[in-house]
Design a protein that fits this description.
The complex is a heterodimer of chains A (407) and B (373).
Chain A lengths: L5 E6 L3 H17 L5 H15 E3 L2 E5 L3 H34 L5 H12 L1 H4 L1 H17 L1 E3 L2 E5 L3 H17 L5 H13 L2 E3 L2 E5 L11 H19 L6 H34 L1 E3 L3 E5 L3 H34 L16 H36 L1 E4 L20 H5 L7
Antiparallel strand pairs in A: 1-2, 1-10, 2-3, 3-4, 4-5, 5-6, 6-7, 7-8, 8-9, 9-10
Helix pairs in contact in A: 1-2, 1-12, 2-3, 3-4, 6-7, 7-8, 9-10, 10-11, 11-12
Chain B lengths: L2 E6 L6 E8 L5 E5 L7 E4 L3 E3 L9 E5 L13 E4 L2 H10 L12 H34 L2 H18 L13 H15 L9 E5 L6 E4 L3 E5 H6 L3 H16 L2 H20 L5 H34 L5 H14 L15 H10 L13 H8 L4
Parallel strand pairs in B: 8-10
Antiparallel strand pairs in B: 1-2, 1-7, 2-3, 3-4, 5-6, 6-7, 9-10
The chains are: A alpha+beta (407), B alpha+beta (373).
Keywords (chain A): Membrane, Transmembrane, Transmembrane helix
Organism (chain A): Salipiger thiooxidans
Protein name (chain A): DUF898 domain-containing protein
Chain lengths: 407, 373
Amino acid sequence: MSDGNYAHGDYTGDGKALFFLALRTGLLTFFTLGIYRFWAKTRIRRFIWSSTRLDGSRFEYTGTGLEKFLGFLMAVVILAVYLGLIQILLFWFGMTIFATPASPEQALAQSIGFSLSGLAVLPFVFFAIYRARRYRMARTRWRGIRFGMEKNAWGYAFRAMGYWALTLLSLGLLTPLMTFRLEKYMTDRTWFGDARFEQQGRWTALYGKMKHVFIGLALLIASGVGFALSADGFSGLTLLAIVAIPVGVVWFGIGLISYNVQSFAYLAQNKTLGERIAFHAEPRTKDIILAYIVGSIVLAIGLSVATAVWGGLAAALLSGVDFETAGPGFQPAMVAPILVTAAGYMLTLIAAHAGALAAITQPIIKHYVTTMTLINLPALASIQQRASDPGADAEGFADALDIGGAI
Amino acid sequence: MQGEAYLYDGRSAIRHRVDVTLTERRDALVISGDALPEPLVWPLPDLRALGDHPDDSQIILTRHLDTEDETLRDQARLVIDDPEMVTWLRRTRPRLHRRDLRHGTWRRIWLSLGGAVAAVLLMVFVILPALAGTLAELLPVEKEIAFGRSVKAQMERMFGAEENGALDCDAPAGRAALDRLVARLTEGQDIGYPLEVTVIEHGMMNAFAVPGGQIVVMNGLLKGAETPDMVAAVLAHEIGHVAHRDPTRNALRAAGSVGLLGLLFGDFTGSAVMVLLAEQLVNASYTQDAEAQADAFAFDTLVAADLPPEALAEMFETFRKEYGDVSGPMAHFASHPRLAERIEAARDATPAELAPRPALTETEWQALRSICD
């Protein structure tokens, strides 16, 4: 666990336990028309947080479903008024500006005009991302000491929009700048007890982590050049160009995952806590892809078996109905089979959700946790408790805007 | 009951090894260790365990305490791995996982809930419809017509047309009869748009108004109607929707409320169904008003054109035979609600002194019915 100076991460959560927790809470969420989802998410976080250990001490999640529910109500009031008004006005402007789609280009312009209403929530999305992280930090403890983050959500939202604009204008070439600066903005405002985190390092170092993205792109460009050169006839070059397309696409996709994993590793390795504590992280891209593939196969097999059993039950009930003689309109004999089919469909969706959490998300979290090390453990002894953070909207904006993913 | 445990005191990040015993009166835990200036005493009824713990052989204890802490708990944590102590705690303290709420929590819940519900209802039922009405009035007519064309094109594609106008029925004699009927209904009225009525090849017994003065009649309606008066009555009803700008207003209102409802139901399994049902419900509450107004408009138009409003009642009867009556709770989900009430209204609207002239001659009626052949 610890050799005095180093503290290693480990993860004790069990797939079966998490699956049944997620299934139970998923069913409750469905039967309460979605209201239980705040409690569901809270309970799943409690499980995952307390499964995570550093130097043998468990993390603790102290958030409650109730405060998330109340935060959501608050966010809904603000967003409902804002979104309702902005959407109806934008739709109206869309009608007045682009009304005659005479050509396909104009029709495209029109649909872009209508989808502009999506952009209207963008500042709130980045605001919500920061607020959500602040809430999660404020509700995370380790060894009884609170984490916390300063209040700067709007500062983050404006910077995030600026960096996103830069990234889009540079066709993605400035992605490392965005990744680094936004993470630095959040990290530099994060605290553990009375010790502050700091993001060190340089944004240009992240270009090295984009290596595989560039290789994938180079393959695709080379394939295009190959086609252009062999335009006058079929040759070995054409064959190469054809092969280069799928290879390039897959390479590019893996490159994106690799960038995610390795930029996380670089950023973690260059964080310090209270100027004395450092971190080491070496997540492996191939292990994460493998975890994803294995998890998906397990999930697919599990779901097929479950649906086969349920489908057989539905078919047995349906076989009692004579469709030939049944007239149009309402047939009482149809009620049971239809209910069974609908219940099976909902149950499958809920089980798939729970299965993905247990078979894919959890192994990936486990990999990140177990490859994480804290350096200079004795320095923790001087860290003192920080004051409690009321948590404002308890990530209600993130819940209202559906951001934040599985956990 | 005694043994060793770890304590995090909630003030520093240091892990303390401590001894845990019971008081002599067996009513509290006594936690003592070298690093503690004096032993901590935690009364047994105040003990709480952390929930959703992944390891059954371990209990992490804290205690109920009203402090600055957001959770109403002591900040200190006592980690118990000793199997004997874990068993003893489970056996004697069944309420370790009970929840503690701050005073006034229920009041806060009801206030927030009431505020949120009121804001959403106000938006969906008052502000958005009013805004939609105003914006529909402000929209230039030619823009509305163009918008309506693209809506109609989308609908045709939904009904299986490969290209715009592919489903339109244009037999010349039928077209002439339809134009004559429309002209008779709109005579002396200012609808606000050039009215454009098309018949499309589709078996459904229905007709609807599209933004920008367009009315689409499905062939199934012409086949199902027994008399030309019934077709005239349906047309008058749809012209009513056009005159009130209902389709445009509805498109605007839905644009506002769908985004809002999506926000409300969030992202859980089955939420899309909820949004759809809720939008249906909201929609139905407007269409009921809009339908009643369109009916009233139709009665006046029909009487002015020497046609019996009763024909609308007959048409509704035919709908009822074909698709069943929709009343009771299900009426909220149907866009043409409460047929029985509307049939009654149509019968009442027919003046006794009305001397009806037939809507179309027999030849014209046959031509209209075979407009798609």
